[in-house]
Specification:
Length: about 325
């Protein structure tokens, strides 16, 4: 009697799904690794790089367990490359030695001026904030901040408040001089020279137009590119605010390559999300609020916390301005 072994047919639909996932992962990885911000959909995809990396790794390993070798190896290798780019943000870098003036800076998007002004001033007091940068600063919010006592703790200000979401401002414990540090854009981006003891710094309240608007990301690309580079011969510069960009976007990479460092990344908190603050399932939380400091400034601490009334979380960092 002759017996024949009948092999169970492979699940063709499961293989098809794995191939589709592999193609999507490779496409998303190429957009990120090649620095392509071509359309608003590409920009949105790049902002999800940490999620794509983890999901791709899990699916790739699952494919290997099911002996889909080509698809599994492709997805796993591509995901490992993405993970290698993302994971270092969760670990602190070595802090360079630096002696100088400690500065505590807080940045917050006020959501068209409806954030809780009393809470903001309370946090400024509690955290001993020296400089506050604000986006979406409205005339009504200026009034609310004054009533909450902001002038008592940060009496110096450069405010470009406007109705809606286009306003911007800087308040400081130290004297301020208004500076046009960023070219005119769709939204206001207040700039100022801060007269610190020993060494002045220049600060920009950053807020480029979001890249996912219907018109496309061109204005966002142009406004990110227009932000000032570090000044190697003059004042130290700090860019703080709602960049509408993650560290995976090419515009942010270019700024970092010019000589800035991301404060949260430096202390191992680069993966803590800042928008939306409610941490819901959709849209996936991403990190688009940043403080970029001159690489000569050692970063000590970074804290991220919710602000009642705003869909963005505030970022507070302490860094040291060296005496040069």
């Amino acid at each position: 009697m002759v017996t024949t072994e009948v092999k169970a047919p492979r699940n063709g639909f499961a293989t098809f799904l794995l191939v589709i996932c592999a193609i999507a992962l490779v496409a998303a990885a190429l957009v990120r690794l090649l620095g392509i911000d071509g359309t608003r959909y590409m920009v949105a995809t790049t902002s999800l790089t940490p999620y794509i990396a983890v999901l791709g790794l899990l699916i790739g390993l699952g494919a290997l367990l099911r002996k889909r070798w080509v698809v599994g190896l492709t997805m796993t290798l591509v995901a490992v490359v993405l993970v290698a780019n993302v994971v270092p943000r969760a670990f602190p870098d070595s802090r360079p030695n630096g002696v100088g003036q400690p500065v505590r800076l807080m940045t917050v998007n006020l959501l068209t001026g409806i954030a809780d002004a009393r809470f903001i001033v309370q946090e400024v007091r509690k955290r001993n904030v020296d400089i506050l940068t604000m986006q979406e600063l409205t005339p009504e919010m200026v009034r609310d901040l004054e009533q909450a006592g902001l002038n008592q703790v940060l009496p110096n200000k450069v405010f470009l408040d406007e109705p809606g979401g286009s306003g911007s401002g800087i308040a400081s414990r130290f004297p301020l001089t208004a500076r046009q540090l960023a070219p005119p854009g769709t939204l206001q981006q207040a700039g100022a020279m801060v007269d610190l003891p020993g060494k002045d710094i220049e600060v920009v309240s950053v807020h480029p137009l979001p890249p996912v608007v219907y018109a496309g990301p061109q204005a966002w690309q142009r406004e990110l590119a227009g932000l000032p580079s570090p000044d190697s011969t003059g004042a130290i510069r700090v860019l703080a605010g709602d960049f509408n960009a993650t560290l995976d976007h090419v515009g942010m990479t270019r700024l970092l390559n010019k000589g800035y460092v991301d404060a949260a990344d430096q202390v191992g908190k680069g993966l803590i999300h800042t928008w939306p603050s409610n941490s819901g399932v959709w849209p996936p939380p991403v990190t688009i609020d940043h403080v970029l400091v001159d690489a000569k400034c050692p970063v000590d601490t970074v804290d991220v916390f919710d602000v009642p009334g705003s869909d963005h979380r505030a970022v507070v960092t302490q860094f040291v301005v060296p005496r040069l």
